[in-house]
């Protein structure tokens, strides 16, 4: 063993040990490993930052932006709302939500698919009394399964494709993973149909700050446009678009005003509605019913095209100039350049028009204005901003444009007109250019720790190959597996990737193990492709811990899960993946050749 090999192995093992220790952040550990590699001289200085421009990093970043734009469009929620309303209990909810998550994960990044469907799932659980702990983990595992089907569904597939490009000169295509991934997904979903019963029932998830704030009941005004594409409809039909989670506290038609209108009252073009409900539900209703915010509450204009318009929540403090006054009397918009979007008041039902409602100390206001203006306005008006979070109301973005852009990118890749990295990078830029996503939202969508981890570990993991370390490990494994059936070596490769993922993170696992698997295949005179596929499947299927994949981490608090809950459902599913996955890979990707 040469000195560079010893240093490379030492660096990798040290990095793995620090990952497993869990004392430091993954991205910080990866950056530290890169610095150590440079100091030892095994990472060439000219290649230190190659990971930032690597196709792997570009595809992951672009897929995150595309997924965020699809999520913020609300198109998926609107499409699924009639279906979700027909699921009365856990027996139907768990398998249907899992299947929907798997399906969506096939076209967007799996964590994005889960993030899109989690709010409707939690809302459905609250409405029907189902346990979120019985719904969220099947959805997370289904997202991991569905992500295996396409190149952009999960990070391991993207990284394995890049490694194949380096080793064999050609990457895996968008749908090369589909034959194995689809069958494993269907098998996994079949298990989850009854397997969800292994999970504890009645666990109460931890409330996040966003959830606590979102529970506030706001009052806002909306106007029915003329013509009205979504109408005509009754008050009851209008409320059903928001899952009956909003109230129409008043209806104005010309000079006529009706407080608490009857459910059978007709809503006509030109009507003005006073709506009450949680912010997210109000936003969904305004978008789904094609309503527009009333002229008094219409979103403010940008002072310049480069400046974002933000919406913030703030509490009226004692001594505020707003206390006892109405927004119309104080001319908030003309005097201060901000718009009052909604008001929340505890313990009182508001029925007056928004800008005629006297504001009280303790009210929560939703204000919209330019990013540079809002801080000064809040101070001058005596308002205390709440915890920063995303607030949307009356968003005028074209709902289905992100779906169209995503479909176009998928078609271009499927027809091999453009490479995957170019197609999804272009799709991400179009999402921003079309205002489906603002630049601020795009930056927020980027999972910086994962991107930094991947970009830093690419040159670090390449040291094992450049020093001849992968050949050395593969030679040892070839002797170990000598005389055993080739499928045993393939199964061992998948199990090693699956076992390492909780400790290394799936991206790090693939970067380290995939080159070893490919080299092992060549030494056994076998086709490297099935071994690369085995690494991709093993690294994508972390069903045993909440830390190996972002999906499992995302559901832990809302589902009220403990560490030991994951193996209850995940262990049998992992066995199923290995037992079915190995023969499936050898069927579609023969070992010989």
From TrEMBL:
Organism expressing this protein natively: Caulobacter ginsengisoli
Lineage: Bacteria, Pseudomonadati, Pseudomonadota, Alphaproteobacteria, Caulobacterales
Compartments where located: Membrane
Record flagged with keyword Ribosomal protein: no
Keyword Protein biosynthesis: no
Keywords in alphabetical order: Membrane, Repeat, Transmembrane, Transmembrane helix, Transport
Residue stretches spanning the membrane: 5-22, 28-45, 57-76, 96-118, 139-160, 180-199, 398-415, 421-438, 450-474, 494-518, 569-592
Descriptive protein name: Di/tricarboxylate transporter
Gene3D superfamilies: Regulator of K+ conductance, C-terminal domain (3.30.70.1450)
Topology of the protein relative to the lipid bilayer: Multi-pass membrane protein
RCK C-terminal domain segment(s): 206-291, 298-383
